[in-house]
Amino acid sequence: MKFTLGWLKEHLDTQASLDEIVLALTRIGLEVEGVENPGEKLAAFTVAKVLTAERHPQADKLQVLSVDAGQGPMQVVCGAPNARAGMLGVFGAPGAYVPGSGITLKVAEIRGVQSNGMMCSVRELELGDEHDGIIELPEDAPVGTSYPAYAGLDDPVIDVAVTPNRQDCMGVRGIARDLAAAGLGTLRPLAEVYRMPADPVPQVGSGPNVATHDPEGCPAFFGQEVRGVANGTAPPWMKRSLTAIGQKPISALVDITNFVMLDLGRPLHVYDKAKLKGGLVARKAKAGEQVLALNGKTYTLDEGMTVIADDAQVHDIGGIMGGEDSGVSEATTDVVIECAYFDPGHIARTGQALNLTSDARQRFERGVDPAFLDEGLAIATWLVVEHCGGTASGVTRSGEPPVAMPKIAYDPARAAALGGLDVPADRQRAILESLGFSVSADWTVTPPSWRRDIDGPADLVEEVIRIEGIDKVPSTPLPRAEGVAVPTATPAQKLERKVRRAAAARGLSEAVTWSFISEAEAAAFGGGAWTLANPISEDMKVMRPSLLPGLLSAARRNIARGSQSVRLFEVGRRYLADDERATLSFVLAGDKVPRGWAGGKAKAFDAFDAKAEALALLAEAGAPVENLQVMGEAGATWHPGQSGTLRLGPKTVLATFGAVHPATLKAFDLDGETVVAGELYLDAIPAKRASGFMRAHYTPPALQAVRRDFAFLVPADLTADALVRAAKGADKAAIVEARLFDLFERDGEKSMAVEIVLQPGDKSFTEAELKAIADKVVAAASKLDATLRG
Amino acid sequence: MTTDLDQLKTDLLAAIDAAAGLDALEAVRVHALGKSGAVTGLLKTLGGMSPEERQVEGPRIHALREAVTVAIADRKAGLEAAALDARLADEQLDMTLPVDVAPRGSVHPVSQVMDELAEIFADMGFAVATGPEIEDDWHNFTALNIPETHPARAMHDTFYLADEHERPMVLRTHTSPVQIRTMMSQKPPIRIIAPGRTYRSDSDATHTPMFHQVEGLVIDKGITLAHLKWTLETFLKAYFERDDVVLRLRPSYFPFTEPSAEVDVGYSMVKGKRVIGGSEGWMEVLGSGMVHPKVIAACGLDPAEWQGFAFGCGIDRLAMLKYGMDDLRAFFDGDLRWLRHYGFSALDVPTLSGGVGA
């Protein structure tokens, strides 16, 4: 919401400076987003009179002027065709910066004649596009005075952000009222502001034929006719105000409606009566009905929308935008002025459905003052009669605006109890009354009709606090529990923190990638359960079923930037049909070890690196990694022979890992790259049992452990895990560890070597005992068709 | 005899001294001290001497043996040291050669700042709460007193999920629905923060369609705007680890709080960059207010009994203000160079004793 300081002062009688006003606005909740003074850059230009104009001796198109800018005659060379003796214009002396042409004036010789400044055009002063000649001022313009001061340009423009609850501040008067309440001056009576005569505008004849047939969408439709108008240009003060805030003056009638809307927050519409067929009715639109709006676009309406129509067609999308067909023009002589109340909810729904915003919608959507229809219409009619002439009709009033306001039982103690600021009751009463609230002796408070946003005591506390000064609210510590702070993190939060830092400690960098991916990327991971109805782009359409698509894309970008080795992880959610699940995913791509003087060639990541990461992170997460089973069925995303799942029991999958399937890589433009990855399902990891801090009793064994090696010839399809488990399980009391330490295949024979560790208890193993255990190991292996190598 | 012994000693010491290696030295030792060595032979003559003679010759022969034994040991040590030196000289490596460096991982700034927030607020008695990111419109809007026609509900602001659902489903536009879920699932007093991902249909230089917010909520008896002010001041001072953090509250409007305030934090210009602290200028960092009675009632609590405050703040922005990143989009790109530069060591765990910042 923009307005000028001068405009504000029409309503607010104040001695306050611009700075004081700006600070006060922000302090009371009308945040100032900018202040600009268009006159500042023109401060060096003055009103001047051309005393004489002679032809330049050396140039046909130039004249030599003698100009008085208040300090006696000065010689100026000028090329404007309209420059002539006796005219008044705008003069820039040497040293002045001309904003429109970007130059600083200096004394110059032009074709041998000295020129001491410049008479300026509209464009040169950035006041418009006109550049056919120099500015011509009226004869009574005071020579020698500052031009921006004379032209009313020296008026700072203030831009405030009005929050959606403050419909009253969508007009300059509402802002003035708030400032007055905040002690910045007094509010002038409206009649004084509009210089209205004591006697109302005479009304001749009955009011126009207007009515509302849609009491929900348009509860009230007031109208007045003015006959015999001349739609010329608006008065200079009005055009200046509109221009200053970036509104282009159009015609007197249009400018008057715009001005009243901006000044009083009261949107109006003016119809050219000659273009109407019969009376005007506010009614629900018929489905498919169309209207050509003033913005030149045709809108197709539906039954929920309220329109203003005559007997033939729709002329107005009620409260949002007028129609082209009944708009006023220079030829207009008779007008109908509409002053209606549209329901905010209807306006919002219609505006959203049509995707159409307007100044009127902004105001009706927040809710205009329902008690201001008569006065608003009277002001509009007065302005029309004053500036366009004509005779006013009577006023037609159809429907009832919803003027009833709630009565709020208020306890002044709430200011301290909720707002934290102790404001004396008398002061609270004064604040509320200055804002237009009525406060009864027993503290029943009725908000003014222009404050639809107020409906409870908390709202009144806000009014009191913001006017008294929110900066006065003290800082009071929250009550603090005794002792040091109690831990608050949940097991799930601690788990996430732990695996995140474990992954970072293992050399992986944490990324945060988008929660939404493209349909194709989701399809490569089995498809997503959730699709956006209104994605911002096709790349961000489906909620990710896995964190890997985002990481694979990030890996591709890093490789494209020349990264030789990519180690990325992310901790976040997968969005499944039934739930959002906490997940840690990682991607390893490129070189595991770079080429080096000691190690030779670079070494690429392989599926075992993914397994190692998965196991290490699961161990940090507290998963019982010793008991995990490595199984297949990782899924179609993965290399079928180089991937697996880590399970606790046959069903609970804690992690998937492996080499990514070449087809998946192709889908992510990673063809030819070695990429391995893993995904940990954090919510599947069993929570640590809460058993206090005490650990199980333990004393390191006194006797040294014994190691024994076994080399087996095994069937080609025997897995290492099966053999190791068999060896380990051969004597559960004595064997504490079993590990595969050698593997080779030659001439169709596969050989695996296993080391077992035996831990003696109270006394050392005897040779006989060791032999017996070894026999058990061999027997267990033989069940798998593994035979001891000779 | 005297002369012979002296000569023998001189000869033997010279031979020891001249021994070029351990083998030569051993030969000298055998020659002198071996079974049939010269000194051994002399020692054997002691038995055949008269006591008087022995008294004279004994000490001299023993002295000779001692001198030769010591000289051999010294020479041996010297030769061994020289041999070791020679070997080590052979084993010299170029110690400027590069070594294998373990890959360096990093924690994302958003995670780090979330951990910082958890640490600071834990000290003030706040737990960390979470909620779904795919929300129904009741939790995201209606319960928060956001009317059906509020512009925030429009498709150009809010992501809606396709297909039919029991209620329209949205990607939560703020972390505020966690307020609702918390108030509905636990009894006051409540003190929580709720950090997490949030979404709005917005994409330009300073907005991304996904971003991170942290919500704060206190519900208790007798909680006022003054407690809110203290909490935010205390939080921001702890977060930026500066005592000169100045806050400015501005009355504002949010449907779910009443009264509402936007919070600006003061900054100073240092070398052309905005640094939090002082009050040369103001930057908006937070939205806050007293929880609206309608919101409390919507959660099944009696607003006459319970009241409190809520606030919301952008985590990405908090990270940028503290650590100096200037491009929000880079947060979500996964560029390893950026992650290494702006990320944190795994061991930079925020603690109150060590300072939450790193």
From TrEMBL, chain A:
The keyword RNA-binding applies. One of its GO terms (cellular component) is phenylalanine-tRNA ligase complex. Tetramer of two alpha and two beta subunits. Keywords: Aminoacyl-tRNA synthetase, ATP-binding, Cytoplasm, Ligase, Magnesium, Metal-binding, Nucleotide-binding, Protein biosynthesis, RNA-binding, tRNA-binding. Its cofactor is Mg(2+). Residues 39-148 form the TRNA-binding domain. Gene3D superfamilies: 3.30.56.10, Bira Bifunctional Protein, Domain 2 (3.30.930.10), Ferrodoxin-fold anticodon-binding domain (3.30.70.380), Nucleic acid-binding proteins (2.40.50.140), Phenylalanyl-trna Synthetase, Chain B, domain 3 (3.50.40.10). Residues 701-789 form the FDX-ACB domain. It catalyses: tRNA(Phe) + L-phenylalanine + ATP = L-phenylalanyl-tRNA(Phe) + AMP + diphosphate + H(+). NCBIfam families: pheT_bact (TIGR00472), YtpR (NF045760). GO terms for molecular function: ATP binding; magnesium ion binding; phenylalanine-tRNA ligase activity; tRNA binding. This is Phenylalanine--tRNA ligase beta subunit. Binds 2 magnesium ions per tetramer. Belongs to the phenylalanyl-tRNA synthetase beta subunit family. Type 1 subfamily. PROSITE patterns: B5 (PS51483), FDX_ACB (PS51447), TRBD (PS50886). Mg(2+) binds at residues 453, 459, 462-463. Residues 403-475 form the B5 domain. It is found in: Cytoplasm. InterPro entries: aa-tRNA-synth_II/BPL/LPL, B3/B4_tRNA-bd, DNA-bd_dom_put_sf, Fdx_antiC-bd, Fdx_antiC-bd_sf, NA-bd_OB-fold, Phe-tRNA-ligase_IIc_bsu, Phe-tRNA-ligase_IIc_bsu_bact. It comes from Sphingomonas gilva. One of its GO terms (biological process) is phenylalanyl-tRNA aminoacylation. It holds the Pfam family tRNA_bind. The lineage of its organism: Bacteria, Pseudomonadati, Pseudomonadota, Alphaproteobacteria, Sphingomonadales. Its EC number is 6.1.1.20.
From TrEMBL, chain B:
Mg(2+) binds at residue 258. Its main location: cytoplasm. GO terms for cellular component: cytoplasm. InterPro entries: aa-tRNA-synth_II (IPR006195), aa-tRNA-synth_II/BPL/LPL (IPR045864), Phe-tRNA-synth_IIc_asu (IPR004529), Phe-tRNA_ligase_II_N (IPR004188), Phe_tRNA_ligase_alpha1_bac (IPR022911), Phenylalanyl-tRNA_Synthase (IPR002319), tRNA-bd_arm (IPR010978). The keyword Ligase applies. Signal peptide: none annotated. It comes from the Bacteria. SUPFAM superfamilies: Class II aaRS and biotin synthetases, tRNA-binding arm. One of its GO terms (molecular function) is tRNA binding. Residues 111-350 form the Aminoacyl-transfer RNA synthetases class-II family profile domain. It catalyses: tRNA(Phe) + L-phenylalanine + ATP = L-phenylalanyl-tRNA(Phe) + AMP + diphosphate + H(+). It is found in: Cytoplasm. Its EC number is 6.1.1.20. Tetramer of two alpha and two beta subunits. Belongs to the class-II aminoacyl-tRNA synthetase family. Phe-tRNA synthetase alpha subunit type 1 subfamily. This is Phenylalanine--tRNA ligase alpha subunit. It comes from Sphingomonas gilva.
